[in-house]
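Tokens for chain A. Residues wanted.
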């Protein structure tokens, strides 16, 4: 039970991160309806333990300073294994660079809910299963987050010369569309990263259900500069 729960939890957390924190908040490629945004916001704070706006702000640091000394997690400036295995530590270091007014205060309510959920799982299935669930959740979720940068900035082709990252299409599905990392850096406001983007069908379904609105359409469109369409750090995702 712990294996199944851990894998499912990591998968859902990665999907929420990609759809809500990344494509909606960080790049404004997608607009999420306010009620849906509120649910995703609460989920992310409880399960991942980070404010979604903070995640988006750190990600923008990466785009603005890609592969330079100010990049929070470039594998070109540090050992790739550090980026792959140390994504949580690199994120914690980068968040200290954010302006104070972009970092919302941290309450204890979401931590209490997280402890309650894990405690309930342990009570139902045993402590060992709870530890297995937590280990797989953290390992798989942080592994995907780290691999996006550790691989995407080192290997593949460069259809957009002079822009950070590489395209390696066969990795697009396991990395939630980021096999097209060079294309994403060239067109950060596009809702679709490339032909094999597994998030695109999900976005189309959510749009059909009127849960989201697609802003950047299926074909990547140029932006005058990375993140030029998403300079505001904590705008309401319902706008």
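Reply:
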């Amino acid at each position: 039970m712990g294996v199944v729960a851990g894998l499912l939890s990591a998968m859902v957390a990665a999907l929420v991160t990609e759809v809500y924190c990344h494509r909606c908040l960080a790049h404004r490629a997608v607009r999420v309806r306010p009620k849906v945004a509120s649910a995703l916001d609460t989920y992310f704070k409880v399960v991942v333990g980070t404010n979604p706006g903070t995640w988006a702000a750190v990600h923008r640091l990466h785009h603005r300073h890609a592969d330079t000394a100010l990049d929070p997690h470039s594998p070109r400036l540090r050992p790739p294994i550090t980026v792959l295995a140390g994504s949580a530590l690199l994120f914690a270091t980068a968040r200290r660079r954010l302006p104070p007014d972009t970092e919302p205060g941290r309450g204890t309510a979401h931590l209490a809910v997280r402890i309650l959920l894990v405690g309930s799982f342990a009570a139902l299935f045993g402590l060992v299963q709870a530890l297995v669930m937590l280990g797989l959740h953290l390992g798989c979720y942080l592994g995907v987050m780290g691999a996006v940068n550790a691989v995407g900035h080192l290997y593949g082709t460069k259809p957009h010369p002079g822009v950070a990252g590489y395209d390696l299409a066969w990795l697009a599905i396991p990395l939630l569309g980021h096999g097209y990392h060079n294309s994403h850096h060239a067109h950060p406001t596009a809702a679709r990263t490339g032909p094999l983007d597994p998030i695109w069908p999900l976005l189309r379904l959510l749009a059909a259900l009127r849960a989201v609105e697609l802003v950047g359409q299926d074909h990547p469109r140029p932006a005058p500069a990375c993140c030029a369409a998403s300079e505001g750090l904590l705008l309401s995702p319902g706008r």
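The first helix runs from residue 2 to 26. The chain has one domain: 2-214.
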